[in-house]
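Batch job 17 of 40 flagged for manual review because the log was empty.
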Amino acid sequence: MSGHSHFKTVAATKNANDAKKGKIFSKMARVITIAVKDKGPDISSNIQLKAAIEKAKEFNMPKENIERAIKKGTGELAGESLEEVAFEGFGPGGIALIMEGITDNKNRTLGEIKGILGQYDGKIAGEGAVRWMFERKGFLVIPSEGKSKEDWEMTVIEIGGDDIRWTQETTEIYTKPEDFEAVKKAAKERGIIIDHAALSWIPKEEISINEKDIEKAKKLFEALDENDAVQDVYSNLK
């Protein structure tokens, strides 16, 4: 389980069944539509849209779905009245949570999230109660490819990254938000395979909880992921 986002949960759904894929495509379409509404349909000037389309393609989202989502954003096709939302809360064992999403009814979504949290010993928190525990950073996950931590540290410096977390399987690269796109581009130019890249909320400190609460946390993340409005969940779980 990832302590900073539910990336591994999402990654595990790449080979999911049709129903699950349909839910993923629906969520991605909302991200594309919002990005177009905010800054237009030109991917050369709309970084958020470019990133959303790249992510959709990673999951083999059909081209026609992407085009339909763009047209909803421009108003060429009728669509829902969507807005971005963010909620803060606490989960099992006192872990801190940031939950971001896109919804056509904020009050309904808030009620649904409150209900999900309540099922797993969690609770909603007021604005700002949790966010101070996190930092906004660019985040890339790449295969370690047999290279040592020292090798990757040198590479990260060269491409403009700030910090890394290394294991034999994967290396996580962290960047300043404003450097994220440049670092991602530099990595691609070097032929580095990127498994995942996103602007994320990274916890300043991670906490450990007991096994019983870890199991509850897993179920909580899965339940939040199943919610149609929830796009990303971040926690400080170690």
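Reviewer: the log was empty due to a logging misconfiguration, but the result itself is present. Residues 7-74 form a domain with the Arc Repressor Mutant, subunit A fold (CATH 1.10.10.200). Unflagging and moving on to job 18.
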